[in-house]
Amino acid sequence: MASRKQWVLISAGVAVLCLAIWGGLYYRGMRALGEGLAGQGAFKAEKPTDTEARINVLALCDAVQSYRDEHGAYVVAGPTPKAVPKGGVPVPFPKDEAFQRLGFEPGEEVRFQYEVVVQEGPVGEPEVSCIARGDFDGDGQNSVYRVRLDSNGMTTPVEVEHEGE
Predict the structure, then answer these.
(1) What would the 3-class secondary structure string for 91-129 be?
(2) Cα torsion at 34, 40, 43, 48 (round to 10°)?
(3) Which UniProt keywords apply (predicted)?
(4) Higher pLDDT, 122 or 129
(5) Both 17 and 62 in a single domain?
(6) I want to staple 57 with a disulfide (CB 3.0 to 4.6 A). Which of 39, 50, 77, 147 is the partner?
(7) Cα-Cα-Cα-Cα dihedral of 37, 137, 135, 149, to 10°?
(8) What pLDDT digit, counting tens, does each position of 13-70 carry?
(9) pTM of the model
(10) CA 14, CA 59: separation in Å to the nearest integer?
(11) Are residues 72 and 16 in the same domain?
């Protein structure tokens, strides 16, 4: 029978051996990954998604409703930026007085154009739409993301037209 010291030494040796094997495999994997990325550009931008639009139209409608709750009126805003961003390339979001009043700040750069539209509804209540437009593939056809506010301040789910355009 081996003594307690021998078992401790054997266990420590096995642990060191396992760490060495794992470290070697990790190093080889990271090296292979690095070589693979080198050919593709290690800092290649990720493919843009519509997450920005989906989050921001909901945030915009929340801001519109909060403003109405506090001031008693809806604010029309945008379209901002003036041109719809194309190809998924972010563009600066210019300062806009109406968006600033609402407290809507989508970030310094955006991949979508934002707008708040207020129209008279068929029963006299205003219809409010918060809209984001983008053209990821640069073909001139816009994807449109819309959230509507009802007279009670409730938002609809995000509606999407021409998704992926």
Answers:
(1) EECCCCHHHHHHCCCCCCEECCEEEEEEEECCCCCEEEE
(2) -130
(3) Membrane, Transmembrane, Transmembrane helix
(4) 129
(5) no
(6) 147
(7) -80
(8) 544 444 445 544 444 544 554 555 444 544 445 556 789 999 999 999 999 999 999 9
(9) 0.70
(10) 55
(11) no
